[in-house]
Specification:
alpha/beta; about 15% strand
Length: about 250
């Protein structure tokens, strides 16, 4: 079977890196071989040991020094440089002969989803799915949830790969808040009613556009702290690539 690439994507602070680590730990328990790729040259400390790391080729600090730019400019240059070494990264990944490749994308989501390097990476690596993280604090308000659906949809349009939606850091929300967000994702009409109570006309217009385009999809509550949702992410990936067949049996 071809390698499956799982890209963790989301806004800054949504928990991509820790979810990458948690899902890696989960795959360990399933005894499914995998590697972790870090695409963020600005990462200072990681909770996991990356198998393939762009920082071995360049770091944010070195980019700032070489190109005489500040942190923001260095992040943009770094994102573009990642695209130029896509083939080298793919060769390094293939040396591991792993079944699944977990890709931890840059902290600033737009550096991966809006720059051409993201498309280059995905086209080069192939056979991928994105796990898109919804920030829990933003998600718990109707207008915030709609804005995140819009951002997730824009990532689909740009990257053109299947997407699994997850409500990250669910452990910081109450059970009631989690249930409400899950209902919004599966029942847009309830979300519309809650938006109407907020009386935000722009949010209502955006909601209608997204609903008409069929962009609302069920969301999975997850937590890197208590490991909830890992099995659900695993099942969603199976459904995308193998119609629900168990990866353990396929790769076994």
């Amino acid at each position: 079977m071809d390698q499956v690439f799982v890209y963790f994507v989301g806004t800054a602070g949504s928990g991509k890196t820790y979810l990458t680590k948690a899902f890696s730990d989960f795959l360990d328990t399933k005894k499914i071989s995998h590697v972790i790729v870090n695409l963020d040259p600005g990462a200072e400390e990681l909770p996991y040991e990356p198998d393939v790391d762009v920082r071995e080729r360049f770091t944010l600090e070195k980019i700032m020094e070489e190109y005489k730019v500040g942190p923001n400019g260095a992040q943009i240059i770094g994102a573009d440089l990642v695209g130029t070494i896509a083939d080298d990264l793919k060769d390094e990944i293939e040396l591991y002969d792993a079944d699944i490749v977990l890709v931890d994308t840059p902290g600033q989501m737009e550096l991966f989803t809006l720059r051409s390097s993201g498309e280059i990476i995905i086209r080069c690596f192939g056979n991928g799915v994105t796990v898109y993280l919804f920030d829990p604090v933003i998600s718990k308000t109707p207008s915030g949830f709609v804005s995140l659906v819009f951002m997730a949809s824009s990532a689909v349009f740009r990257l053109n790969v299947p997407q699994v939606l997850v409500l990250s850091k669910a452990d910081v929300l109450s059970d009631e808040e989690i249930e409400r967000v899950v209902r919004w994702s599966s029942d847009p009409e309830e979300l519309y009613d809650d938006l109407a109570l907020d009386r935000k006309s722009l949010s209502l217009e955006l909601f209608l556009m997204l609903k008409d385009a069929g962009l609302f999809r069920p969301i999975i509550p997850v937590s890197a702290v208590d490991m909830r949702g890992m099995e659900d992410i695993y099942d969603a990936i199976q459904e995308v690539f193998y119609g629900g067949e168990d990866l353990e049996r396929i790769y076994g």
